[in-house]
Write a structure and sequence with these properties.
Blueprint: H1 9-19, H2 22-29, H3 36-43, E1 48-50, E2 65-67, E3 70-72, E4 76-78, H4 84-87, H5 91-102, E5 106-108, H6 116-122, E6 127-131, H7 137-149, E7 154-158, H8 168-173, H9 183-191, H10 193-201, H11 219-226, H12 233-243, E8 247-252, H13 255-264, E9 268-271, H14 285-296, E10 301-305, H15 311-319, E11 324-327, H16 329-361, E12 374-376
Parallel strand pairs: 4-11, 5-6, 6-7, 7-8, 8-9, 9-10, 10-11
Antiparallel strand pairs: 1-12, 2-3
Helix pairs in contact: 1-16, 5-16, 13-14, 15-16
The structure holds flavin mononucleotide (FMN).
Flavin mononucleotide binds next to helix 2 and helix 16.
Length: 378
């Protein structure tokens, strides 16, 4: 499938499935247990309708948004995702470059396959750095110091992964980064020749930020060694003191947690269930936006993360009070399908579609969106 023939996220998903090795596609596409949460993330948007307004004269649309002091050209930014060079040889480089082109923020995963420093130097647009809660405080300090030194504008602390979720597709595929070569994987590699050629002609895939610090060879082993389920609010306070800059807490769905996050000093909160990859029974982030906004008022900025597939999803979240939205799979499908060109296609579909849907909504700017545009279908 040609990338120009992809007209929505589902098309990009099909193109990614056609090009990538099966275990790679499943790692991107899959989620925990029965994959209920990932389906809900998206379907929950359908519970909200946009009550469009007519004769508003909205013709030229202003999509710009301010998030944590940064002016973005669009109301979305790119959520962090691990291991991008496994999906396409250009990995995080391709994604960061595409984000800069549309004028939005790129967030780099702590488990990236291109280093903090290289991505920082690649573009001049603002970037966020994502961190998990590692047991080794020295490692945490080192990561924060490198991100600060490299000029990352904010730190995102992801807390919905105290341990790894139960991703059964990865288990069936015996998925690891770097991949272990089994007979089944050789068979799948033959069915994805373009991915396989890239893989064998590119430098080895490693967690670029940890290569010197850890001997861990597999994602599972690295998590086992370093994820710190005992990390609590007091540790989060310690971490904020170490970072001493703009901070975002990612993985919140409970209003009480949001109140505590704001009181602890986080400037932003990402309402997220990790794209359904962790607790399969967790609620869709969009359904928690109203209750969380009601509880915290303007004490922190809110980002809705999870299930954004259509431009109308973005309009709904912004009208319901989000400061921005984010997503990973839409751009990862593009990356796996066609590298930077595929990521650009994904982002362009959102930009073009947003302009169209905003005119259809009758709103000339993102700032003009409010709850009067929304009806909840009980
Ligand atoms: C392949 C993949 C890798 C991810 N890696 C990370 C990560 O390293 N750190 C993190 O905080 N979230 C990670 N996420 C979660 C995303 O940041 C985001 O919360 C989620 O993808 C949102 O769901 P959506 O992309 O389906 O809309 C990952 C998601 C995917 C699909």
């Amino acid at each position: 499938m040609k990338i120009e023939d992809c007209h929505n996220v589902d098309d990009l998903r099909r193109a990614a499935r056609a090009r990538a090795h099966r275990m790679v596609f499943d790692y991107i596409d899959g989620a925990a247990d029965d994959e209920v949460a990932i389906r809900n993330n998206n379907h929950s948007f359908r519970a909200f309708e946009i009550v469009h307004k007519v004769l508003t004269g909205a013709e030229q649309v202003d999509l710009s948004t301010t998030l944590l002091g940064h002016r973005l050209k669009v109301p979305f930014f790119l959520a962090p995702s691990a291991g991008n060079r496994l999906f396409h040889k250009d990995g995080e480089r391709a994604v960061a470059a595409a984000a800069a082109k549309v004028g939005t923020i790129y967030s780099l995963s702590t488990l990236s396959t291109v280093s903090i420093e290289e991505i920082a130097a690649l573009t001049s647009t603002p970037k966020f750095f994502q961190l998990y809660v590692w047991k080794d405080r020295g490692l945490v300090r080192e990561m924060l110091a490198r991100a600060r030194e490299a000029g990352y504008a904010a730190m995102i602390l992801t807390v919905d992964m105290p341990i790894a979720g139960n991703r059964e597709r990865d288990k069936h595929n015996r998925f690891t980064i770097p991949p272990k070569i089994t007979l089944r994987q050789i068979w799948d590699a033959l069915r994805a020749p373009r991915w396989t050629l890239d893989y064998f002609t590119s430098p080895p895939i490693t967690y670029a930020n940890y290569a010197a610090r850890t001997k861990a060879t597999s994602l599972a082993r690295f998590f086992e060694e370093q994820l710190h389920a005992g990390f609590g609010w007091r540790d989060a306070e310690w971490l904020l003191g170490e970072w001493n800059g703009t901070s975002v807490l990612k993985g919140v769905v409970s209003p009480a947690d949001a109140v505590r996050a704001a009181a602890t000093g986080f400037n932003g909160i990402m309402l997220s269930n990790h794209g359904g990859r962790q607790l399969d029974a967790s609620p869709a982030p969009i359904t928690m936006l109203g209750p969380i906004r009601d509880r915290i008022g303007n004490d922190a900025e809110l980002i809705v993360d999870g299930g954004i597939r259509r431009c109308s999803d973005i309009i709904k979240a912004m009208a319901l009070g989000a400061n921005a939205v984010s997503f990973a799979r839409p751009y990862l499908y593009g990356l796996a399908a066609a590298g930077q060109q595929g990521v650009e296609r994904a982002l362009d579909l959102f930009v073009t579609g947003l302009k169209r849907d905003m005119v259809l909504t009758g709103a000339s700017s993102i700032a003009a969106l409010d709850e009067s545009f929304i009806r909840y279908k009980a």
